[in-house]
Structure formats: C-alpha cells, structure tokens
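Please check this record.
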Amino acid sequence: MGVVYSDIESTEKRLQQLADMLTITAGPLEIGSDGRVYSKVAGSGNSSTSSPAAAAAAKANQVWQQRSKELVEEQEKASKARQEAAAARRAGSTPAKRPLSPDQDQQQRKEGPSFDEWEDAIGPFLEGERPAVWEQLLVPSEMTRTARNYLWTCWLKGFRNKGAVDRFTMAKEAQAAAARSGGWQQAKKGTQAPLRMAEPSAAVSAAAAKLAARQPVDLEDQDVLDELFENIWSLPPNVRHYLAQHWRGQLRSDWSAEMDDLMQTAYKLQQELKALHDSSYEAVLQSARVIGCTTTGAALQKDLLRRTAPG
C-alpha cells in the first residue's frame, strides 16, 4: 500500500507542475483590431466578436495574470534558493536551514513544484529540437554566478547582444591574447570595446513585416528557419515572441498529452488503493453477524457489500 501512496503522490506532483506550466505559458488573451479574441500562444484564436466574448477574455486575463504572478514569484524564490545553494557548495559549506513556523510549513506544503521556463521547458526542448538555437542561448558553464536563464531572459527582452556573456567571452579572448603576446594593457582595452549589435538580414526583416501585418510565418520551411536561426540575436522583438510562443505551443501540446496520460494513471492508482482498502474492510465485514449502514453508505459501498454477501 505504501508503494501505491508514493506513486499517487508523485503523480499528483507532476500533474500540479504540468498545470502550472500550462498556466504560465498560456499568455493573456487580447482583442484584435478585427474584434476577434486572440490567445498570444501561436496558432490559437477565437473567432467570436461579441462583447460577451471580450468580457470573458478580460475576466480570463485577470485570473491568468494573478496565477502567473504567483508562479513567477515562486520561480524567483526557487531560482534564488538554487543560487544560494550553489554559492554555498562553492564555498565548501551548506546553507543553514532555519526552522519553519507552523504557518510557513503549511504554506510550503501547499506550494506546488517551482517552474523555471528555461531550465524545465524551453532549454531541454531546444537542446533536443533546435540545438543550434540552444547553443546561442546557453550561458557558459564558467559563469557560475550567472543564472542559467540569463540569455533567454535577455533574448525575450529584445537585447541585440549577449550582454554580460559577450563581456565574459571578450575578457577570455583578451586574456588568451595577452598570455601569448604579453600585452596586458592592450588586452584591457579589448575588454572595454563596445559590444557589437546584431543586425537583421533581409529575410528576417521580411518575416517581421509579415508578423506586423498579422500574417503567419511558415515555420515548416527549412530555408526560412535557417535564416531565422543563423543569428537569433538579430531577430526583431515580434519575431522573437512569435518563435517563443510557437515553441511554447509545441511544449503545451506535449504537456497536455502527458497530463491526459497521468490523469488516467492517477485514476487507476486510486482504484487500486480503493481495492486495497476494500479488501481489509471485506475481511472485517465477513466476520460480522450484522452490518449496519445508511442507504447512502450502502449505495456507495454496494460492490463491497455484494462481495461480503450479508444474509
């Protein structure tokens, strides 16, 4: 029975994580210039143009924004905790754990698994599906004090270079050059050079213009993808958001399928647990001469009563 309880607990945790992931990646609804209600997840939309649809979209946005805010706060706390733990490991110590008050302990038990979009979703997805893109968003392992999602966040914000990562790379190159030539002053000047800004190609500009006109970009065309992914830091903000939502849409499809499977698994586990409980109850009832219950209880436990076959 303990194994079943453990399986149910792990299944419920994963279901909660999937629900949070689906919530935070859904994006708000918006009313387009044509009066339609659109979801910001690529490829989805609602053709309704009535004011009730707009009111429903506004209400849905309020719920989404509140839950997303809660999940983002959970992500930030989890990310901070991971960074503190990593810093403690580097220092050769472990962070002291403060005892939790009853309220804090109860709140911690209520909270679902934290979700980091880059670490838990986009990063692994791109590593498997788009390794060339993943490499452009990967923070060097030597930058131990930099969050793993730093470049993903910068990219979504529209940065046209890698910021601190570019500075780190330039410093490494300058140090290597200085070691070869001995010119430390020249190396120092190299690290102070302005960062280069990535410029979009003609194909990238054309894709941005299509999106601005609310026309879809064919992400099944390999030539288009090659142009877009050659240097993702040159992409305009609307193309970046379109790609991000396309990737999220693919992930959401996978998560939805996994969630469906897990819900069926959870149902089977609950049935198995019920059968285990019933078997112990059945042993007790079979030794009884009289069984008393309400009509509601009899209706709920009819299978159990049928097996015990009271006279």
